[in-house]
3-methyl-2-oxobutanoate hydroxymethyltransferase (Tannerella sp. oral taxon BU063 isolate Cell 6/7/9), 273 residues
Amino acid sequence: MSTAIADDSRKVTTHRLYEMKQRGEKIAMLTAYDYSMAQIIDRAGMDVILVGDSASNVMAGNITTLPITLDQMIYHGKSVVKAVRRALVVVDLPFGSYQGNSKEALASAIRVMKQTHADCIKMEGGAEIRESIQRVLCAGIPIMGHLGLTPQSINKFGTYTVRAREEAEAAKLVEDARLLEELGCFALVLEKIPANLATRVASELRIPVIGIGAGGGVDGQVLVMHDMLGINQDFSPRFLRRYADLHTVITDAVQAYIGDIKTHDFPNEKEQY
Ligand code: KIV
């Protein structure tokens, strides 16, 4: 095991993430959607576990994150929280549960916090959801922001390519990042933007900035678990590093099991009563 992994078993809090940024310690974040995987990821020493609305893609097989419902996010959030002892657990507010108005946003955030017992929520967007962010924060619910490629807006973007390459979009992103910090968000995810822009935002903000496809100059990294473990082989963006080939491991194991049944090898004498 790498010696860089903290052996500190204290619960990770929003304040501890802030301290990690201050002392230059990188923050490790990964998605999880179920009890068993969350337990492995937490025990491995992950700092932050995101119950991402990417569950819509990797768990439910949808093309976008838009179809997943608040009830479904709560189901995933509950399963993950039951397994986690140390990591900070963040649950995504899904599309349609907070954009309408700030009362709806607060009601959705309260449901997530009450029913999942997660530590905080994540919301996509900047100035356009300002009122919702303020109202949720006023209720004492910590918010992680999310700017850059925000998958809930895929129908507006029309493409999953890198965002904020153009000056105007980059300027709006910097403005939104400052606003989220000013409003009181405790951290920010920057997805698929040029590395130099992400580095600039991370160095300007006091709150931790976690990147996905945003280069190494930010305060931490997040990936989708199915992508980094190689469960999902259809998605190969440049920013993805695969740490395992579970697709092959699982396929081999399942085929060995099928073979053992067909050849009458399983179960053997010792595997029965
Ligand atoms: O839903 C998700 O998995 C996310 C990450 C890509 C940051 O929002």
